Each structure stands twice: as structure tokens, then as C-alpha cells.
Amino acid sequence: MLYYTVSVTIKVIKGGVRKPMEFSNRNTQPQAAAPSAHTAAAGAAGGGKKGKARGGSKLNKLAVLIGTVLMAILLIAVIVFAVNAPGKKESSYVDSSKLQAVFLNTGQVYFGNVTSMNNQYIVLTNIYYLQTAQSGNNNNANSSVSLVKLGCELHEPYDKMVINRDQVTFWENLQDSGQVATAVKTFEKQNPDGQKCADQSSSAGTNTGNNAQSAGSSNSNNSTTTSGN
């Protein structure tokens, strides 16, 4: 009988402790794959669009706000203009074919042609005014009114007057059939070359002969009767 001898060599490996197999990852779900470059670029583009959309929305809101404020300002301006609008100019009411009467706050009234008018003054030409004379005593007073053409007074003014607007109470156009307009027409017919002033005295009471129309006299207080020459 043959016998075989088998030799087994056992080597001890230092630190030869086998690592146990790790089973902890068996129940863990696989991690998502990293996004590709194309996907990342698409996401960045989408984020940029959202940012632009938010920025555009803010700009739109700002534009709406500015538009609303401008509309409000425009509306207020229209209302203020409508309230304070001067409308038709006062000078457009002057009838250049008629005489005008300008009444002052002093009680004086001048007749003539208004040639210019603004907020500061009124320019009057071809000027006439009323002159009142009284005679007699208080119990038997006589009053006479004359329409006098300006120009033959002691200081001989030009036939043009600039009246401060603050002194004007009101003015009006005169009808051709009125006594003043009729007297002026009569005076102009009698003096086609304009009035000629006589030699004047140094006395302020001197009659210069520039009456366009004299009024009749009566014996009652403050009663005047007007008649043409």
C-alpha cells in the first residue's frame, strides 16, 4: 500500500482580516445622473427668460404708473384752463363803426372811439365829454348840459386819451340813433376840417366854443333837456 504525503503551507498574512462585504448600498436607490451640458444650458436659458419676464413686468408697472400720473396732470390742467379761460377777448366786442362810452369810477364819462384795449389801459380817440353848468339859486336853479369836443381846453390836449384800466367801471357801444351819436354827427358836418379853437383866455372858465351840442335849460333842480344845434 502506497501512502502519499501532502504538505500544506499556511501563511499568515499580516493584517489579513478580510473586509466584510458591504451590503449597505443594496437598498439605496441609484443617484440621478449629472445633467448634461445641453440640459444645463437649457435650464440657464429658462432662468434668464424668467428673470427678463420679471424685469419686464416691473417696467410695465412703472410705465403704467407714469402714464396714470401724466393723465392726471393733463386732466387737472384742462380743468384749470377751462375754469380760468378768458374766452372771447373783450376787445372783440368793440364795434369800430360805432361810438363808445367809457365810464370812470370818478363819475366822469368820455365818448369816442376805442382803438386799443388791454388789461392795463384803454385808448380812446375822437373824444367828447359832458359839461354841466348851473345858474340861479337853490330855489330856482337852472342846469344846462353840453357835449364838448376835447382839444380846445386851456391845456389843449391831443384828441387821444390813454385811460388807466383800474379807473374804468364799464364801457359800452352807442347806437347811431342816440342823442350823443346824433350830436357828434352834426358837429362833424358843421366842422368838416375839424374843430378850430378860438383864442383862449387864461381864465379856466373861458368859453372856447367847442360845444358839440348844447342842452336846453329848465327851472327845475337836476332837470336837463337836450336838443341838437
Q: Architecture of the domain at 90-196 and 209-218 in CATH?
A: Roll
Specify the CATH class of the domain at 90-196 and 209-218. Answer: Mainly Beta
Structural class: alpha+beta
Shape: elongated
The N- to C-terminal Cα distance equals 192 Å
The H-and-E topology, N to C, reads as HEEEEEEHEE
Describe this structure in words.
By secondary structure, the protein is an alpha+beta fold. The protein has a domain at 90-196 and 209-218: SH3 type barrels (Roll). It contains 2 helices and 8 strands. Strands 1, 2, 3, 4, 5, 6, 7 and 8 form an 8-stranded antiparallel β-sheet that branches. A hairpin with a 3-residue loop joins strand 2 and strand 3 (121-136). The relative contact order is 0.11. Residues 200-208 and 215-229 have low confidence and may be disordered.
